Amino acid sequence: MIDNGSLSFNIIEVFFLIFAFNGICFAAALRLKSAAFQSANRVMALVVLLLALVLIDSVLFVQQFYQQYPVLYGWVLPLYPLIPLLIDRYGSIACDEPEPFSLKRYVPFFCGLILLGALLALDPSDKINLTKGVIAEEPSVLLIGVGFNLLIVDLMVIVQTLYYIVKGWKRVNRYQHKLVENFSNIEKRQMIWLKNMLIAFMFLWLVFVVEMVLVLVDDNIQSHIVNLGISVAIFGLGYFTLCHNQVFFHEDGCSEDSKRIDQDVRREISQDSTKSDTPKYKHSALDETLSSAIAEQIKATLNESQLYTDPDLDLSKLAERTGFSRNQLSQVLNDALNSNFYNFINTLRVEEAQRQLKSSPELTVLEIALNVGFNSKSSFYNAFKKTTGVTPTSYRASCLH
Predict the structure, then answer these.
(1) If DSSP codes are grouped into helix, strand and coil, which group holds residue 288?
(2) Closest Cα to residue 314, out of 352, 264, 274, 256?
């Protein structure tokens, strides 16, 4: 509370200010990070910085700082609508779904700017009453308008945030669906971390809505749940982004050719995502005879030199080897073979693993997993159990007996 012109913070508020300071440091570190991730890091740095500023504003409000300096009240209003916009931008970069600039997306931000201008025009005594939640006996028209629009902006931000969370979730699902159609190993390419981030923001959104309702019912309620959620978000986003250099496709262990193919496929995935309203294979000219011929060619090519054991095998490589387009191969895999590229290749790998588990007892399960094209023991176990219903260890034990 304010005491002789100074601020006196309790332990909880000091805790929040420490996290806000950490957020500013995280934002600076992300901004200066490797150029390989500059675009995504720049966006995440802004998200963490805005969350830190929102946290500082919340602490200052509780401290009644704005009652002493009413001219500063409302400075954070335009920042709230930017956070969901930046999260959406981060997701579009991660999933390679660039979107054209649209002013409509910034309507809540502009409303916040207009509201900030109206607050600056208010009499200081009216601002103090706003911070206290006190309504004057004869409020001015401007004060009534500001109070009403404060609520409107809050509601706009709530709707906007929910929209972008749902949109981001659909984008990740769409992207992961494209992964299984294009790659044989997807563990390092999945966007599970992005889904977890969206879940965290959904939880924060729910807490914010509940607290807003409680404050509308009783404006004397002071809850720290939203601030605690923001603090966790600041630390989680900053730490994760700084410590996980390989959240995108730039794996250090990949060959330049593999990186090039990844970039080409991602570009096509991005283009496919803009055509999601078009029925799949609507313009395809494949008849049943040609489809069967391509299916046989796929099987022959994969079995030739056991191509499916290549851990970097993807649809583009298979297209180069067969001479058919990626779209034709994908259609045949889906329609004629009732599968997708990921499942089809991994089924062949599991079948080869079964043979090696029987015939090569001197090899460990991990060695066999790597031999047949899997990148990790966990992905091998998951694929093997999905295909056979048992684990590789159990299968080997049953063969020995």
Answers:
(1) helix
(2) 264
CA 17 to chain centre: 27
The pair phi, psi for residue 246, each rounded to 5°, is -115, 35
H or E, element range at 68: helix 65-68
Kindly report the backbone phi and psi dihedral angles of residue 183, in degrees, each rounded to the nearest multiple of 5, phi listed first.
-125, 150
What phi and psi values does residue 7 have, to the nearest 5 degrees? -100, 140
226's CB contacts (< 8 A; 6+ apart) are 58, 204, 207, 208, 211
The encoded tokens of residue 49 equal 């910085």
CA-closest candidate to residue 361, choices 389, 334, 393, 390: 393
Question: Per 3-state DSSP, what percentage of the chain is helix, strand, and coil (rounded to 5)?
Answer: 75, 0, 25
CB 20 within 8 A of CB 52: yes
Helix (H) or strand (E) holding 150: helix 141-182
Least Cα distance to 285 among 331, 340, 320, 318 occurs for 331
Tokens representing 82 are 């930017």
The answer to whether the pTM exceeds 0.70 is yes
Beta partners for residue 314, in sequence order? 183
Cα angle for residues 79, 83, 89 (degrees, 5° grid): 130
What backbone phi and psi angles, to 5 degrees, belong to 20? Answer: -65, -40
pLDDT tens, position by position, for the chain (401 residues)? 444 455 677 888 899 999 999 999 988 888 876 555 678 888 889 999 999 999 999 888 888 888 888 888 888 989 999 999 999 999 998 888 888 888 888 888 898 888 888 888 888 887 877 777 666 666 777 777 887 888 888 888 999 999 999 999 999 999 989 999 999 998 877 788 888 889 989 998 998 888 888 877 776 666 688 888 899 888 888 877 776 554 444 444 444 444 444 555 555 555 555 454 445 555 556 778 888 999 999 999 999 889 999 999 999 999 999 999 999 999 999 998 999 999 999 999 999 999 999 999 899 999 999 999 999 999 999 999 999 999 999 999 988 76
CA-CA distance, 234 to 341, in Å (whole number)?
38
Is the alpha carbon torsion for 225, 226, 230, 233 positive or negative? positive
Report the alpha-carbon distance of residue 334 to residue 265 in Å, rounded: 18
Q: Give, in degrees to the nearest 5, the angle at Cα 99 between 316 and 166.
A: 95
CA–CA gap between residue 334 and residue 50 (Å, rounded): 45
CB 65 within 8 A of CB 17: no
CA 248 – CA 264 distance, rounded (Å): 14
